[in-house]
């Protein structure tokens, strides 16, 4: 029996915390500056020595980049809800996962989402979960392919948040799931559905992944290998021939060499080679965001047409489609084994 002055203890439960990259709170200058400052100050994202990089970031990049990035965000902003599409979609994914997992486990689990950069922060959500009685937390970065600049930095922030807790919950992190059959099937199903709606079958499907400096590959980051294998597994699941799907990399930043081929250059090359009809999918993104809605669907689509292409189709991310939610639920259940 607890003494009279003992603090009230919540019912013990298990937390599932899904995490995505992040989003600015608005597309105005100061919202964009705060977000970009946090993002680009992360040494996992830009590993240039701090003494060299931070003055460039603070004095030069953050003086003009918020304007250009803000303009891009404004073009895709969910004005009805006052937030970016990534926030809207991640919330919808979480609501769907919460419903699925509550049907299985009732009030034994708590499902929340967080952002590595911006809000809701990982620190705030870990604190909330601990206060609500989560004695175990499964942390799930929503990146199918592992990369130091995505999965690892999210895990870093999660572990840093745990350091602030007097009573640390037991914790697990979900590993990369690029080869999970349920994820591959969901990806293939989305392609099949999109192709069924087209009058003309595309000459090629471009699997466009977020890029990274090539030297990260030589330093041991498995991201490139995960991406190439994702494309191969997708091709095999679809039953297609070699060459029907091409892996490319987008979002290059800075002057050094990044993973190739670059998406924007490859689609232009295809157009100049007489390929008039292509489709693009972004398997590295679990939810549509600035890199897919603005960069792929607008900038890269324009590059294809300017080079002579005619029909450009962007196949949306899996977002909160039922088959995606079922896949994520299966992955969560596998990683909850022995906990619930």
Structure report:
The protein is an alpha/beta fold and 340 residues long. The protein folds into 2 domains: 13-176 and 323-335, Rossmann fold (3-Layer(aba) Sandwich), CATH 3.40.50.1400; 181-315, Rossmann fold. 48% of the residues lie in helices and 16% in strands. The chain is built from 11 helices and 8 strands. It has helices at residues 29-40, 50-76, 85-105, 122-131, 148-162, 181-196, 214-218, 223-238, 263-272, 290-306, 322-335; strands at 13-23, 109-118, 134-141, 170-173, 204-210, 245-250, 277-281, 311-315. It has a 4-stranded parallel β-sheet with strand order 2-1-3-4, with helices on both faces. A 4-stranded parallel β-sheet has the order 6-5-7-8, sandwiched between helices. Helix 3 (85-105) crosses helix 11 (322-335), helix 4 (122-131) packs across helix 5 (148-162) and helix 9 (263-272) packs parallel to helix 10. The radius of gyration is 21 Å and the shape is globular. The model has no long low-confidence stretch (mean pLDDT 96).
- CATH topology call of the largest domain: Rossmann fold
The assigned structural class equals alpha/beta
Uncertain ranges: none
Distance between the termini: 26 Å
Q: Specify Rg, calculated over alpha carbons.
A: 21 Å
**Strand segment count:** 8
- Please estimate the helix content: 40-55%
Q: What is the number of helices?
A: 11
Shape: globular
Series of secondary-structure elements, N-terminal to C-terminal: EHHHEHEHEHEHHEHEHEH
Largest sheet descriptor: 4 strands, parallel
Q: What do the pLDDT scores average to?
A: 96
